[in-house]
Design the sequence.
């Protein structure tokens, strides 16, 4: 009997207006994933149900609430994927996203560290972190002509968030690959994502992760959680 450890999870993360939602829908359709295997619109749902808004994005409680909701949705999706012929979970964000936005909206470096610690030190995130380090993360980079106001995050912060996301991922020891304007065609992006998911290229992904870990080790010398 297969266990949840054999489930492959692909996280599409990064700033808004980078093509995440479009690629998310295309991958789900291409792979014929059950809706229950797809984690999407968590932040919007939380904002709708709680009264949080873009104006309160700097509120650590907002980011904590989003993180908790994300982790709950991921667990449900893993349960669905566990009984599916296609043992894949697809998510258009991760619990790393609220950490990145908590850091991004901090007034000082000390505050950023404190905010990060509040979210990272929870038992729920620590449990997820073990999975994240074995997962597949695509970090989306901005494509200038695609930038729009999505009503959730300010476009003024998109450039800064492009710098914060990789810093947080490296500090947490989470391997990732980047996707930006070098691949704009949707079908090419789907193929790129499926190559990460596919069993045939798992060895290549592990090799890539080892290379990223070298960068992580170097980065951690100057950055500590």
Sequence:
């Amino acid at each position: 009997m297969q266990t949840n450890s054999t489930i492959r999870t692909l996280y599409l993360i990064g700033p808004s207006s980078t093509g995440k939602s479009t690629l998310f829908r295309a991958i789900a359709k291409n792979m014929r994933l059950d809706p229950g295997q797809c984690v999407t619109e968590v932040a919007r749902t939380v904002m709708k149900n709680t009264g949080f808004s873009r104006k309160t994005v700097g509120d650590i409680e907002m980011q904590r609430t989003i993180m908790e909701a994300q982790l709950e949705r991921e667990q449900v999706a893993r349960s669905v994927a566990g009984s599916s012929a296609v043992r894949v979970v697809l998510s258009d964000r991760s619990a790393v996203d609220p950490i990145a936005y908590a850091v991004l909206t901090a007034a000082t470096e000390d505050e950023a560290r404190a905010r990060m610690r509040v979210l990272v030190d929870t038992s729920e995130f620590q449990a997820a972190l073990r999975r994240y380090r074995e997962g597949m993360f695509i970090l989306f980079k901005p494509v200038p002509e695609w930038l729009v106001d999505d009503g959730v995050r300010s476009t003024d912060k998109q450039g800064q968030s492009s710098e914060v996301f990789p810093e947080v991922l490296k500090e947490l020891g989470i391997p990732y690959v980047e996707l930006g304007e070098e691949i704009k065609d949707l079908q090419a992006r789907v193929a790129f994502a499926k190559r990460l998911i596919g069993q045939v290229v798992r060895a290549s992904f592990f090799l890539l992760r080892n290379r990223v870990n070298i960068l992580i080790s170097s980065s951690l010398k100057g950055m500590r959680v």
